[in-house]
Amino acid sequence: MLLTEPAPAAIWASLWLAALPALVVLASPHGVRNPRRALFDTIGFLRRREEAREAEHRHRVEEAVSSARYAAELRVAADQAACAVDRWQSQWETAAARSAATFQAWHAADTRLHRTRAAAPFHTPFTDQTPSEYADRERYLHLAVRAAADRGELPTTAVADALTTRSESPTTPAPALTSTPIPAPAPTSDPAPAFAPAPAAVPVGGAWDARLHPAEQELVVHRAAATHLAALHRAARTAERRAWDDLQRATRNRDHLRREGTRATIHAASLRHLLPSTPTHATPSRAHLRAA
Question: How much is the pTM?
């Protein structure tokens, strides 16, 4: 009854407050000899405790603000990383499409080379070795090389080399090209390992031989085209593998930022109640400004 009624409760609280300094003084032996000093020490202790509590509160508020800012920065970084993944995905798809296209071109050139080589055992028909015959052969070589370069089967430098070739250039026997099975194209989900870049396709012997029969020139052109397209395919596979590696690194970076952002957001949400409230001030409209 004494604690539930307001008047007795107020009397008891007043008595406790009045007896508190005496209890503090009696709790210390030094306080018995110097009560005033003990009272000042008690007041200083309470003041320091309150200051420490306020400092702890300020530290918690600063931590809440920093956590919220860090979570926002991670969200922005994760969005930028996602955009980077999209760009690398597009580049890898382009590189994969180019690798597949170069493989198809190489496969067609190699198939054509096999057909041409299969007809090589049949001897070429005899023709008179006249200046006009050699002029026709040189003209055929120029047309064949230019047509292959227009189709992308030979580099543009091959056309210049063929045009500067003289009909009296020495003939060099062409070494046989070993027939090897063409590997299947690399799957788009796991690009094949990179190959060392091969040199550009050059005619056998380092120069075009315009004195060869057109059938033999066709074999040389097809061999050079197959070599050039094989080099393009190896370079395209290397570019595809590099783009795939870049895409994987970008994906791992995006996932890492998203995980860090999730943890930072959860931590910031646990401290959100400590954030200082930002009062919104009403901005006067232009009509009110004109009226004023």
Answer: 0.57
